[in-house]
């Protein structure tokens, strides 16, 4: 009886061990099947992606690219191993681009502040010259040619303020152009063949099938490349609209003068500095095909100005000039709260502070 119990106990242990081994083998098989299914799903997802838009494709391609490459048959999507390497490369690129975006925003703020300071000095000097003939000079009234000499000096003071105001505007144009280029550089493309032993990535597309977004997979935690691009586009649009409005103010401020005939006379269609139209075309404010500037408009307003004045008021009064300076300071097209919210959202996604 004792021998029978020992034999039965031994058989039960063997059966339990065999059952555990079978269960472990079954779990391993199921896990491998699920892992292979996930990989196949990711590859299938990459195969069914729609091609990137022609506009984005043109922006992402280098200018020296051979046009004949568009006729080359599409290559196979990158394997899963390349996708795993794409994510850290994309993370580095997105961090760098948004760090640049924050830097260009500060560059804009500095240029805008400098422009307003020179605009204020220009307006003060102009108003002093304009109202000088009617001013009571007290004991200085009997000094010969005192008004003429003071007026001449005020005219000379206005010239450097005009030059520095124009320089500040040029810096703002450069800052917006940098923002535009940065907003178009969020994607990370495979450089060279995917079968290469050394996998590298670039900001330019070498394959029409490579969308540069990792198949829509999250770059950090939740957001794909498209989400970062959308926020960057929203940010850039605010500064483009504000730049166009400030251009209108710059033209008005540069044109004010007490001199007859007018020495500084500008109109909307004039190029304010050499190469300005090329710079404005980069930020979608000038059409090279039609040779026309985009008319100013306000944010969230679909209609632009119906017509810009052909002739400017070269001697505006104090109230009008105060409106110009207040409009410059207010930056009505830049929603500061929304801008900070965008940078905060991006920073939380990337787990860094970029404000």
The number of helical elements comes to 8
The side-by-side strand order for the widest beta sheet comes to: 1-2
Number of beta-strand segments: 4
Rg for CA atoms: 33 Å
Largest sheet: 2 strands, antiparallel
Spatial shape:
elongated
Overall pLDDT: 77
**SS-derived structural category:** mainly alpha
Low-confidence sequence ranges: 1-77
Helix content: 55-70%
Distance between the termini: 83 Å
Q: How would you classify the quaternary structure?
A: single chain
Secondary-structure element series: HHHHEEHHEEHH
Strand-residue proportion: under 5%
Describe how the helices and strands are arranged:
Elements: H1 2-47, H2 54-60, H3 80-130, H4 146-183, E1 189-191, E2 200-202, H5 225-255, H6 276-282, E3 286-287, E4 292-293, H7 318-330, H8 336-350
Antiparallel strand pairs: 1-2, 3-4
Helix pairs in contact: 3-4, 3-5, 3-7, 4-5, 4-6
Short overview:
With 355 residues, this protein is mainly alpha-helical. The chain contains eight helices and four strands, in the order ααααββααββαα. The model is unreliable at 1-77 (pLDDT under 50).
